[in-house]
């Protein structure tokens, strides 16, 4: 994997590429190091040598010289906070404060300043027109980078200049990135600025607290839990904490109301996961809060540990698992046909232990939840189904049904529109789409009436 120039100090980056003897480096490399160190005299001296015929002039040569995609400004703002070189490059040479470097990752001067933790340089660039809203192809901006690097003071600066505390990207919001990297002080700053503690990352459906638990960032998880994060979201925080032996997080989750009787995506209870993957201490912690599991004959701490280990050994046999999965699916289908939706959901859950992202099984279980009137669980399964196969119209159909039950008519219309693009012959989905459109308009009319006090306005929408 190629090394990103923002991942390590510039000097170290160049030493790894060129060796420790700077005198043997190309002049362009020595040039960017001079800028990095804030040595204007050295910078101009090397520029004169590079301008062999004296045609361009020193300032023009300074502006045009690059190494490994970086110009002098990119290197200077990653330095030691010496603003004299920044003023020279921007005010006298006229370098663009928003110019990307030409490396594969394409970073602006402001991103270089953030990566280097150079607060004075970041402030200087913003004062001179740096765009803090510039996005890369994944929607990442400098507020995301600052949060991911744990640069709390720069995060404060960016927020004071108008950065969005809940800025979206494919990798999450700033709070997600700070939490998953374990930057406690940065999480505190973002929470002080009212960051959304329950925002989902569309690509993986993680909330900030789930990201912290998945990354085993105990201090960040505690902060988010204490701030009121939803501890019973899609990704089963308690189950993950129990599996990874995160005792302190498990305690916090239980105190915050996490459901110890909610299984993970494979149908395993937190106490079962603690028994197999965690520690006895965690089993003892969960035991008083967990309802007896029907197929555990000896409901005691030792009995649970022995049962969980035996079942885990059985699941390691792939042929047996696939056969069991097929049988359970068939039994689930039969129970569904007999309108025994509770039994069907249990059977599908057991079958999903072998493959937690089996699209058809998730779609089937989503239908069970719908019949049982649990729109939230239906939506969670439908979203997992869609993540597994984004081009399957049925996944969008199930998500649309769940959103309808939750009265999210506008979102339902969006999802069903995409579903019909994928499966235009699906009459049932088409009918549901038009029903969603009707309810969306009705909902809008009701809102307009409440706001304006006149039903006449509805006819104008």
From TrEMBL:
InterPro entries the UniProt entry points to: Ankyrin_rpt, Ankyrin_rpt-contain_sf, Cul2-RING_E3_ligase_SR, TPR-like_helical_dom_sf, TPR_2, TPR_rpt
Coiled-coil region(s): none
Pfam families with a match to the protein in the record: Ank_2 (PF12796), Ank_4 (PF13637), TPR_2 (PF07719)
ANK repeats: 105-137, 138-170, 170-198
Keywords: ANK repeat, Repeat, TPR repeat
Ribonucleoprotein listed as a keyword: no
Superkingdom of source: Eukaryota
PANTHER family for this protein: ANKYRIN REPEAT FAMILY PROTEIN (PTHR46224), OS12G0634900 PROTEIN (PTHR46224:SF1)
Protein name: Uncharacterized protein
Species of the source: Lolium multiflorum
């Amino acid at each position: 994997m190629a090394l990103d120039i923002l991942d390590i100090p510039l000097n170290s980056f160049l030493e790894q590429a060129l060796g420790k003897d700077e005198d043997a480096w190309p002049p362009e490399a020595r040039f960017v190091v001079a800028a990095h160190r804030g040595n204007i005299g050295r910078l101009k001296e090397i520029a004169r040598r590079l301008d062999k015929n004296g045609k361009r002039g020193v300032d023009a040569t300074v502006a045009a010289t690059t190494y490994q995609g970086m110009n002098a400004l990119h290197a200077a703002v990653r330095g030691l906070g010496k603003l004299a070189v920044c003023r020279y490059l921007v005010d006298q040479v006229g370098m663009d404060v928003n110019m990307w470097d030409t490396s594969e990752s394409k970073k602006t001067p402001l991103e270089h300043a953030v990566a280097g933790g150079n607060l004075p340089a970041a402030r200087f660039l913003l004062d001179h027109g740096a765009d803090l809203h510039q996005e890369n192809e994944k929607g990442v901006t400098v507020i995301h980078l600052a949060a991911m690097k744990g640069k709390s003071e720069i995060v404060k600066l960016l927020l004071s200049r108008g950065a969005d505390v809940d800025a979206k990207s494919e990798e999450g919001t700033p709070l997600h990135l700070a939490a998953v990297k374990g930057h406690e002080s940065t999480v505190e700053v973002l929470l002080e600025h009212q960051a959304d503690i329950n925002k989902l990352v569309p690509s993986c459906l993680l909330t900030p607290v789930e990201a912290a638990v998945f990354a085993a960032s105990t201090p960040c998880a505690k902060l988010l839990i204490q701030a009121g994060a939803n501890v019973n979201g899609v990704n089963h925080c308690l189950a993950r904490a129990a599996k990874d032996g995160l005792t302190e997080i498990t305690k916090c989750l239980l105190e915050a109301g996490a459901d110890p009787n909610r299984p993970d995506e494979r149908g395993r209870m937190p106490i079962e996961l603690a028994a197999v993957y965690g520690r006895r201490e965690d089993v003892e912690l969960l035991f008083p809060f967990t309802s007896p599991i029907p197929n555990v004959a000896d409901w005691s701490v030792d009995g649970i540990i022995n049962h969980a280990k035996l079942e885990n050994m059985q699941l390691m046999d792939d042929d047996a698992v696939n056969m069991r999965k097929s049988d359970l699916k068939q039994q689930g289908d039969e129970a569904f046909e007999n309108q025994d939706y509770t039994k069907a959901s249990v059977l599908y859950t057991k079958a999903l232990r072998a493959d937690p992202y089996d699209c058809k099984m998730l779609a089937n279980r989503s239908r069970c939840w719908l019949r049982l009137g649990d729109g939230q669980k239906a939506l969670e399964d439908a979203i997992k189904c869609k993540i597994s196969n984004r081009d399957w119209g049925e996944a969008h159909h199930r998500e649309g049904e769940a959103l309808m039950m939750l009265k999210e008519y506008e979102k339902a219309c969006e999802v069903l529109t995409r579903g019909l693009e994928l499966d235009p012959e699906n009459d049932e989905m088409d009918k549901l789409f038009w029903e969603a459109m009707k309810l969306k308009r009705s909902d809008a009319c009701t809102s307009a009436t409440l706001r304006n006090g006149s039903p006449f306005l509805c006819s104008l929408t």
